[in-house]
Amino acid sequence: MEFINNDIMTYAIQYTQDESELLKSLNKETHQKILQPRMISGHFQGRFLSFVAKLIKPQKILEIGTFTGYATLCLAEGLTKDGEIHTIDINEELVDFQKKYFDQSVFKNQIFPYLGEAKNIIPKLDLKLDLVFIDADKINYPIYLEMVVAKLKKGGVLIADNVLWSGKVLNKQKKSLDSETNSIKLFNELVKKDKRLETVLLPIRDGLMICKKV
Ligand SMILES: C[S@@+](CC[C@H](N)C(=O)[O-])C[C@H]1O[C@@H](n2cnc3c(N)ncnc32)[C@H](O)[C@@H]1O
Predict the structure, then answer these.
(1) Residue nearest to atom 25 of ligand 1 (CA)
(2) Dist. CA 102–CA 120, nearest whole Å
(3) Are 70 and 47 in contact (CB under 8 A)?
(4) Domain boundaries, the chain
């Protein structure tokens, strides 16, 4: 499903700050060499993530779902000088690619990548978080929500990608839906009901949920 027509999207990108040369080449190489390149946040969403991070000036960020590291580098732009971004991915084939780009970044010493199942890694992280970006397997979104809200500081911000799931969230027939769609729908309901969170669902790309812990 297309939420905003292509011409409007092209115009919005045209009047959004350009991505850096490093991000441009990461984006290009992801499309040339990596399976399912459309998973990358990309220019427009990346600038949004960077902008939010710069407003928050986080000390500690957690990203669930590193992929090729595009959003990691965008979020890192907002870190305080001694800030850290911790980022988790289960796919070991991406490690060399991520490292190649993290090593070229000015944030290289502030990025802490983890390889493995996010559900197992998050409980072991002794972190009080200012900003969280959930962007991994949709089936575990409700679990990630509970895990990260507990670690989020008051005033901390949670962003989750793909909460419109190509429009499938509009389907009311629970039984005929795939488990990922049901999981995203449950996540959106849990977020909306959660008294610890103030929430806005932004129809940017595939839907970005942005919440503040009150
Ligand atoms: C949509 S991509 C992330 C995109 C990236 N955040 C960006 O903006 O460019 C989702 C990533 O989640 C990872 N992933 C999927 N299931 C996971 C799990 N159970 N634990 C950790 N990572 C997982 C995948 O390997 C994939 O790289």
Answers:
(1) 91
(2) 24
(3) no
(4) 6-213
Atom of ligand 1 lying closest to residue 69 CA: 9
Token digits for 24? 């441009």
* Contact residues of ligand 1, CB 6 A cut-off: 39-41, 65, 67, 70-71, 88-91, 117-118, 135-137, 140
Residue 82: C-alpha distances to residues 73, 76, 77, 152, 162 (Å): 15, 11, 12, 18, 30
In this prediction the pTM is 0.97
Give the tokens for residue 96.
């060399």
User: Tokens standing for 161?
Assistant: 């990608």
12-54 confidence digits (pLDDT tens): 999 999 999 999 999 999 999 999 999 999 999 999 999 999 9
Is 6-213 assigned to CATH 3.10.25.10?
Answer: no
Q: Most distant CA pair in the chain: distance in Å?
A: 49
Distance CA 10, CA 30 (A): 21
Q: Which tens digit of pLDDT belongs to each residue from 136-191?
A: 999 999 999 999 999 999 999 999 999 999 999 998 876 777 999 999 999 999 99
CA of 118 to the centre of ligand 1 (A): 9
